[in-house]
Design brief:
Layout: H1 10-24, H2 26-33, H3 39-64
Length: 65
């Protein structure tokens, strides 16, 4: 991943790089790989994430009406 530094604006370039890495899921992957996670725990975590996303989506839809 590359970010161009324009006119010495290093802070802005770092901010842009962090956004790109976050969108690509790099930080999430690093967090997941930090410790060993058994397959059963992975399945549980993924199910929880799916439920959380579904609840969030449902709340968002209800808020519109």
């Amino acid at each position: 991943m590359e970010v161009e530094v324009e006119d010495g604006k290093v802070d802005a370039a770092i901010k842009t790089l962090k956004k790109k890495l976050n969108r690509a899921g790099v930080f999430r992957k690093i967090k997941e790989k930090r410790f060993y996670e058994p397959p059963s725990a992975k399945k549980q975590r993924k199910k929880k994430e799916i439920l959380r996303r579904a609840k969030k989506k449902l709340k968002k839809q209800q808020r519109k009406y």
